[in-house]
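User: Putative transcriptional regulator. Structure?
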Amino acid sequence: MQPLTKDTLTQINTTICGDERSLEVLQNKGIVKTYIKGYRIYPDSDELLGFLYVLSGKVRFFSVSSNAKEITIFTIATNESCIISTSCILSHIKADVVLEFMEDSSVFILPNKTFETLTHSNESIMRFNLSLVSKRLKQAFDTINDVTFKSLKNRVIKFLLSNAKNNRVEASQESIANNIGSAREAVTRVIKELKTQGLIETNRNEIVLKNGIYELDYE
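Assistant: Predicted structure:
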């Protein structure tokens, strides 16, 4: 567990539209934890409950179907946040959700009851909370829309473009399949098609994006 710095507290307090009182609460009640890449937190854990703010890294929120198929609901990265309630259930999405750290990450946590008290005592924080809930709900509905109405090829392209850094995506085909809720064999076929079209190159657990893929209409 790491101590909070003044800069960290100020950054988070600004994000939630807080005041001097909320800054004091963040200092007294908040904690910072670090997690290694690949670490998962399951629904029966109370390890991360409350307001979660990513100081560095990236976190994936996903659900697992009865046949063990994973589907990513959304991800949050540095300077983004989410609210998690009992048993690692998103407070605004009534489904069991697993958290996976996609990179070595550092996160700030403010316990549920503390954040709830802040929300009800400060109108600006209440507005921030409602805005955050709305944003995460939209991401969840977008995921449902993608799975229901978009072709697998478009979903793979969207994943690649959303996760590329310097035109490279560090992910195995199995990882891509888990993220978009598909079978690895089906994703492999799409990857081969994109490679044949000259839109990507593949290395071990890495995909290199070529210029042409950025010109595609995948929406």
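The chain has seven helices and twelve strands. Confidence is low (pLDDT under 50) at residues 86-92.
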